Amino acid sequence: MKYGFYPGCSLHGTGIEYGMSTTVVAKKLDINLVEIPDWNCCGASSAHNTDPLLAKALPARNLALAEQYGLNDIAIPCAACYQRLKMSELAVQKEETREEISEIIEMNLKGKARARSILEVFSNDLSEERIREEVVKPLTGLKVACYYGCLLVKPPEVAIDSTEHPLMMDRIITTLGGTPVEWDYKTECCGGALSLTRVDAAVMMTAKILHYAKLAGADCIATPCPLCTSNLDMRQKAAEKALGISINLPVYYFTELMGTAFGIAPNELGLDKHFVEAKSLLQNISAPAGQ
């Protein structure tokens, strides 16, 4: 299967382990991710707070580039990037808007390219059987709090799954042999947009999510969002201090858990790049199937 690939800025920086794990897992599953040549920043999260037209035009240029190269299905790991490209995709379905934006970006825009979350691609475009074929180290006994955040499921017009009770990631974890925990915070906002302007508020929002994942019996958290991961991982010590408790929950990209179950080496997945130590837990639960 062939997809256009939009890595976005974070996969080259704060979410580098997401980029590493996505690439190797896709290759394992025979998914051909073709990076869109000369892609540009999608504008998240400042453009749509500054200029509504700019917020459509920036991601629309990536849609136009994808069309030019015949990459009409665009796989996007970052939840924020997905939302911005999806909002632009929907906007340019209107001929008047499409013509206006085509003039701004000085490119022909047909409105054919489709923004797809990489979570959606792995969950909907692959069968459970295909994923299970690659599992050599099942995540037996691992209790995972699947945390979707808000950007993949809100607003409803861009949602890849249920806005309140998404299950795409849960199904993948189950297929890998792990156990998704039941909890009520899987789509709560982590305060990512406040990370620089209201750190105190972001810490408390993050702390609630971590606390309730721990209360649900989770051994770790899985996410599909670089911004959420940065908050839950990087700010975990601050959250522990704010709550006066120990949390110590590794925070993984769901692709890191897929790669672990597929037997891919930890350093190829970026497991050494976490703030909360993330290698030991997976080494303890991952044994070759049948042993």
TrEMBL record:
Organism of provenance: Heliorestis acidaminivorans
One Pfam family hit: CCG
GO MF annotations in UniProt: oxidoreductase activity
Classification lineage: Bacteria, Bacillati, Bacillota, Clostridia, Eubacteriales
Domain Cysteine-rich: 4-85, 144-233
Keywords: Oxidoreductase
Listed name of the protein: Heterodisulfide reductase subunit B
InterPro entries to which the protein is assigned, alphabetical: Cys_rich_dom, HdrB/HdrD_reductase
